[in-house]
Amino acid sequence: MNKIKYFDHAATTSVKEEVLKEMLPYFSIEYGNASSIYSIGRRAKRSIDEARRRVAITINSEPKEIYFTGCGSESDNIAIKGIAYANKDKGNHIITTKIEHHAILNACKTLEKEGFSVTYLNVDKQGVINLQELENAITNKTILISIMFANNEIGTIEPIEEIGKIAKKYNILFHTDGVQAIGNAKIDVKNMNIDLLSMSAHKFYGPKGVGALYIKNGVKCNKLQDGGHQEKDLRAGTENVAGIVGLGKAIQISCQNLHKYNTKLVELREYYISQIEKRIPYIKINGHREKRLPGNANISFKFVDGEDLLLNLDAKGICASSGSACSTGSTNPSHVLLAIGLKEEEARGALRVTFGEENTIEDVEFLVESLVEIVERLRNMSPEYLEFVKNKL
Ligand code: PLP
Predict the structure, then answer these.
(1) Quick one: 332 and 225 in the same domain?
(2) Are 248 and 265 found together in one domain?
(3) Domain shared by 192 and 284, yes or no
(4) Which amino acid residue places its CA nearest to atom 12 of ligand 1?
């Protein structure tokens, strides 16, 4: 069987060998419960503390400000609901954007049913919020601003430092969903005035099912789950020691390699985009052209359906995404692509390619060759395209 060509690193990544190696003992010989006072338990606790230290160093925080969770979605839920419940005596208004991940959007929807009010900011054609619109949306009831660091579908990076300054000026808490950004962009919670930051290990070559949440010291946040007093009483449940160790190792490696990794991804992305622009007509590049995640290229192919593209690419062993993997199965066009002003058919024709560690220029060439052939074949089966060509002649 041919090796698959994987271009879906925004959906998930493989666990790095060094990461797996550090995790393995915690499934067998080091199986202690971190709450136990005997040595095997104390060693588990020490390993969790070391992972906490590694996360803290990466984002310039204190270890005591890091809480481990079960995934990025859980970090987002604790940030949104935990802050809302803890601050409801101060106000009931939250500001977010129309292009957030569903972990944020659906947490906000739940709060709306409970009497909170939420403003969903627009974004421009490139997916960037308008800072003036943000400032105008602030009321004396606003308790939280939650704006993602980088978008998972189109890769656009938001003006986080400026948002942090506005939040600080009005004394409002600022959460950012950093799930796609960690491992791809430098995040400094102090310099950027970030009060809460969500992370997820499986996006930066760590294991699935473990996440982290930074909460600035002194910020009140309610727990969502009752049980024991783990994670300083914020997140009940016996810790996933192996997962946490893996997250810690993965974030440490990604932080050390950040510059080299980014340079490589930008090179692959730019080569891919330039080749597609040169070889396939009637395309549109989605997202901001410069302020974007290094490995993300989101392109709409006119007269083609993204799902058909995916199936045909899959037949060649190529993995990519037609939107966000989290919403695969739904036939609705992506809310992010609609929010940046794409027509329904343009959104349906979008292909998200996200490059990563194991990709090479030869892989990109194979991807481009495959797309040239598939897009042409699919277009020639599209009555709309044939009509378009006929009218052009
Ligand atoms: N936030 C963003 C921006 C994401 O891209 C994702 C996953 O794709 C999540 C949150 C959810 O993370 P997890 O899969 O760890 O729950």
Answers:
(1) no
(2) no
(3) no
(4) 72
Residue 200 CA: which ligand 1 atom is closest?
Answer: 15
Domain total for the chain?
Answer: 2
**Listed residues 256, 274, 298: the one ending a domain:** 256
Computed over every residue of the chain, the mean pLDDT equals: 96
Q: Are both 174 and 311 inside the same structural domain?
A: no
Query: What's the CA gap between 163 and 166, in Å, rounded?
Result: 5
Confidence of residue 332 (pLDDT cuts 50, 70, 90): confident
Rounded average pLDDT over 285-313: 97
Instruction: Assess whether 133 and 197 both reside in one domain.
Output: yes
- One domain, residues 277 and 222: no
Q: How distant is the alpha carbon of residue 3 from its chain centre?
A: 26
| Nearest Cα residue to atom 8 of ligand 1 | 11
Q: Is there a contact between 72 and 198 (Cβ–Cβ < 8 Å)? A: yes
Please say if the pLDDT value at position 112 is more than 90: yes
Answer yes or no: is pLDDT of 189 > 60. Answer: yes
Does the C-beta of 247 come closer than 6 Å to ligand 1? no
Question: pTM for the full model?
Answer: 0.97
Is the model's pLDDT at 28 over the cut of 90?
A: yes
Three-point CA angle 309, 315, 321, nearest 5°: 40
Separation CA 19–CA 6 (nearest Å): 20
Is 188 a residue whose pLDDT tops 50? Answer: yes
Question: Which residue numbers are catalytic?
Answer: 326
**Cα–Cα separations (whole angstroms), residue 345 to 242, 255, 301:** 44, 39, 9
**Per-residue model confidence (pLDDT) at position 2:** 62
